[in-house]
Amino acid sequence: MKTIDGKQIKLQIRDTAGQEPFRSIHPSYYRGAAGALLVYDIIRRDTFNHLTTWLEYARQHSNSNMVIRLIGNKSDLEFRSEVKKEGEAFAREHGLIFMETSAKTGSNVEEAFINTAKEIYEKIQEGVFDINNEANGIKIGPQPAATNATHAGSQGGQQAGGGCC
């Protein structure tokens, strides 16, 4: 768990590695997602060439406000890159946020997730995502227990703001 703006944020991550056998279950993944990371391997052009298909599929099956980040992985092998600046251009063309990472060295990996979570959080703050509708891929977890002063005057064990526990 990470803290953003003083709030604990927990991400649920599903990785299909772009494999076709998982394609039939993707609609349910996207329907309940607030964000997605589309990752390609910078030293394998074929993974980059499939991005258009995966992006269209994600957009077709998701909320139109879903945060999508494009990730070029294996930045530690940049000298072998088959996909030079094309990732940045693709991201610009499709309105995505772009960054390169290295799963091997850990470079920018955590940042990719944290920055995606921050962008989702900003959309929540702006009212773009309805936090009461879990179909947006956002679920509010247990809230911290209130202080005894908050319970003053409450009845039946319920807090002043409603709810129980």
Automatic annotation (TrEMBL):
Coiled coil: none annotated. One of its GO terms (molecular function) is GTPase activity. SMART domains: RAB, RAS, RHO. It comes from the Eukaryota. Residues 146-165 are annotated as: Disordered. It holds the Pfam family Ras. Residues 154-165 have a biased composition (Gly residues). InterPro entries: P-loop_NTPase (IPR027417), Rab_GTPases_membrane_traffic (IPR050209), Small_GTP-bd (IPR005225), Small_GTPase (IPR001806). It comes from Lipotes vexillifer. Belongs to the small GTPase superfamily. Rab family. Keywords: GTP-binding, Nucleotide-binding. The lineage of its organism: Eukaryota, Metazoa, Chordata, Craniata, Vertebrata. This is Ras-related protein Rab-2A-like. NCBIfam families: small_GTP. Gene3D superfamilies: P-loop containing nucleotide triphosphate hydrolases.
